TrEMBL record, chains A, B:
Classification via PANTHER family: HTH-TYPE TRANSCRIPTIONAL REGULATOR BETI, HTH-TYPE TRANSCRIPTIONAL REGULATOR RUTR
DNA-binding positions: 28-47
HTH tetR-type domain location: 5-65
One Pfam family recorded for the sequence: TetR_C_7
Protein name: TetR family transcriptional regulator
Keyword Transcription among record annotations: yes
Gene Ontology molecular function: any one: transcription cis-regulatory region binding
Keywords: DNA-binding, Transcription, Transcription regulation
Record organism: Pleomorphomonas carboxyditropha
InterPro entries: Homeodomain-like_sf, HTH-type_TetR-like_transc_reg, HTH_TetR, TetR_C_Proteobacteria
Length: 207, 207
DNA sequence: CCGGAACCGTACCGTACGGTACATAGATTT
DNA sequence: AAATCTATGTACCGTACGGTACGGTTCCGG
């Protein structure tokens, strides 16, 4: 939708860097102009507004992350399980990333102003792609008879909860990501194992 | 140390109200002084600092919430299940409360400054009591033979994930609590049902 | 009745930041 | 070569807010 120019991308990258380093308070228009060797006037010309800049940062960051669609070949149950584990580790990796945390903090800190525009943006560009990818994966598993569920969304939310627990909020509150996302593979394996016990073939559907 | 005087409590209550209504930006010292009919000088005398005020707000709010210890009588499995469901609904209720959301947003918004003091405070006074209560409940269930697990913390985190999913972050990002905590009892029942399938008696422990 | 402590209301100060204006320098077009 | 467009850097403005100072008032103990 808004492919920025390379120059603008560089400025946005710089802005993300500032945000990660010092939080929102460190991201001032003057500071960004100085750090990125551009003028404040250009900032306002390009992004219109400080809020516009923040929004642009989110869409820019989202444009960097690509969510690989599931490879269609999914022959064995073992492959499918591995795919789920990869998803789980990816999810934990993304959520514990510095930039992700900084942007989420930013959006949450502004969730009261103007209808939570940034929050909506973050949900749409950040969470939705992940959600769609996971749901596609789940339904693929169901098609192959590895999973059994009637409500895809419910299954997805359960999977998310089993993987993340309350780790995301704890990290957002300042807990060290290392402490939360520690031993990511183990945690991913456990979550997937639990998920299979709830939704795997052979488990009766919940009602 | 922090039993505040009634007058100070009233001021803190007023501050919470301002925070809920308009977010952090609406919570200015001058505005609070005006709304609470007190002087800025008193604010600084009592709380030392704006950050001190924010910290006081958190401890004050925490002091209002009491977590009932589990009643020791827990004869039947049905009673225990009901207790778990009550915990689940309580948890969803607390997390979707206006004041809780506002304070979490506040702490997250400041999670970059001075070692995330507010975040630590929130974890200690807000989440820890809930965690302890839940763990006590879980271990009570294990003592009665209703549950089977080796790692209490792991079981607790799983329970938390099954109940909350990513609803907390979504609400923090501005999604309507009604949309997330909608149909709380159904969601609580589902989560407890799933939890029993993972950790209930008759389920082999995970390893 | 007196003196002091606590507190209110207001005024004030310094500063930081969002946003605008302008003067200058390269680059691109005509 | 002249003109135009774009971008930089600096200077500037208005405002909002954290923090402090001060005069006036109420309340309480002696």
């Amino acid at each position: 939708m808004e492919p920025f120019t390379p120059r603008q991308n560089a400025v946005l990258e710089c802005a993300l860097q500032l945000l990660v380093a010092g939080g929102e308070r460190a991201l001032t228009t003057a500071g960004l102009a100085r750090a990125a060797n551009c003028s404040k006037e250009s900032l306002y010309k390009w992004f219109g507004d400080r809020d516009g800049l923040l929004a642009a940062m989110i869409t820019y960051q989202a444009s960097k992350v690509r969510t690989p669609g599931p490879r269609e070949s999914m022959p064995t149950l073992d492959d499918f399980t591995r795919s789920l584990a990869v998803f789980a580790e990816d999810l934990l990796g993304v959520l514990s990333g510095e930039v992700s945390l900084a942007l989420n903090r930013l959006a949450i800190g502004q969730a009261d102003r103007d209808g939570a525009e940034l929050g909506a943006l973050l949900r749409e560009h950040g969470r939705l792609p992940i959600e769609l990818r996971a749901k596609a994966l789940l339904e693929l598993g169901r098609r192959h008879g590895y999973l059994k569920f009637s409500d895809t969304h419910e299954a997805y939310e359960t999977l998310y909860g089993l993987i993340v627990h309350d780790g995301h909020v704890r990290m957002l509150l300042g807990e060290a990501p290392a402490k939360v996302a520690d031993d990511r593979p183990r945690r991913a394996r456990l979550a997937i194992s639990q998920f299979f016990r709830l939704y795997g073939q052979g488990a009766q559907d919940i009602r």
